[in-house]
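Morning!

This is the sequence you dropped in the shared folder:
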Amino acid sequence: SIVRKGVWALARHFRVAAFMGQVDLDLTQIQIAPGTSEIEVLCILGQVNIVAPHGLNVECTGHAVMGQFSLKQRSEAVASPGAPLARISGTAIMGEVKVRVVDPAAPSWLARRLRAISPR
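The structure's back. Tokens below.
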């Protein structure tokens, strides 16, 4: 498995390959230049998980053969039109590519649930 998180710089063209393994990319603290950065994914019998912050524009297009290539927006906040763009594309063959856009400052689902059921 490969894990990339914390503060790091995203290159203009970044390639990810997972063959019978797992790759976790956390983009919530990346340093990214203005404009478009490409993330090219090849996933064969594996799993690629990408977490992006809500302040980053994300485009996700991929092809899945007996697999899954998905984008989930977990934040109600929308990136500004001038924000950098991460274009994620690639292929998942009998594998799974999951891209989630989250708000890092938002409380976790557990904290929200506990707040909802706690007596006032």
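Headline: Strands lie at 2-4, 13-19, 22-26, 36-44, 47-53, 57-65, 68-73, 85-93, 96-102.

More detail when I'm at my desk.
O.
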